[in-house]
Amino acid sequence: MANMLENQLLQAAKVVEGQVDAEIEKLEKMDDDDFEALKRRRMEAMKKASQQKQEWLAQGHGDYSEVANEKEFFEECKKSKKVVCHFYRESTFRCKIVDKHLNIIAKKHLETKFIKINAEKCHFLVERLRIKVMPTLCIAKDGKTVDYIVGFGDLGNTDEFPTEMLEWRLGCADIINYKGDLMNPPTLDGSSKKNILHQSKAKKTIRGGDNDSSDDDW
């Protein structure tokens, strides 16, 4: 078994080495015109990224804000390609915890619009989306709901989960540009957890675990 693993590692190393050599050879063959073309493409990409950032900021991205009613909710989902909406209730303490983390994440991930709505003021929307537990995060892409995070069951099942844990879960939903390792969720101290036996995909819908009794049913 050890020899097999060693051979696999050697083969993988050879593949990577071959790819690096190919890139070096490609660079060595480039002339001044090639470098200028590469420079122009990079400048165009940077300009496009800057313009996209300004568009996001103009749409309110970068802030975690509240929408007053269902009409505003649908307007936000129409304006922004990626939306995370926190359905909250004033009397639910765990909603305050979610607020704290989303305030941080919203400033970091301009590509996504982060909003909140009082579930007690949007009964039609709550019924339509079948929201039963507070807090619930509704994740929408291109105007369609694609995922939910219900309670803290996938966030360590504790009120003390770090912001990185929620960021990882949103990354699993492909609603933010997550730079970490999706295969390994952060630990409760915010560091990366290396566990080769961890499931390769997060659950699409979280309904809370056996220890989620502190979440408020609707």
Percentage of residues assigned to helices: 40-55%
The shape is globular
Q: With helices defined by DSSP (H or I, 4 residues minimum), what is the helix count? A: 6
Mean pLDDT: 84
Total number of β-strand segments?
Answer: 7
Radius of gyration: 22 Å
Q: Give the strand line-up of the largest sheet.
A: 1-3-2-5-6
Structure, briefly:
With 218 residues, the protein is an alpha/beta fold. The chain contains 6 helices and 7 strands, in the order H-H-E-H-E-H-E-H-E-E-E-H-E.
Structure description:
The protein has helices at 2-28, 32-58, 70-79, 93-108, 123-128, 163-172; strands spanning 64-66, 82-88, 113-118, 133-134, 136-141, 144-150, 216-217. It is α/β, with parallel strands linked by helices and 218 residues long. The strands form two sheets. Strands 1-3-2-5-6 form a five-stranded mixed sheet. Strands 4-7 form a two-stranded antiparallel ribbon. Strand 2, helix 4 and strand 3 (113-118) form a beta-alpha-beta unit. The radius of gyration is 22 Å and the shape is globular.
Question: How are the SSEs placed, and which strands pair?
Answer:
Elements: H1 2-28, H2 32-58, E1 64-66, H3 70-79, E2 82-88, H4 93-108, E3 113-118, H5 123-128, E4 133-134, E5 136-141, E6 144-150, H6 163-172, E7 216-217
Parallel strand pairs: 1-3, 2-3
Antiparallel strand pairs: 2-5, 4-7, 5-6
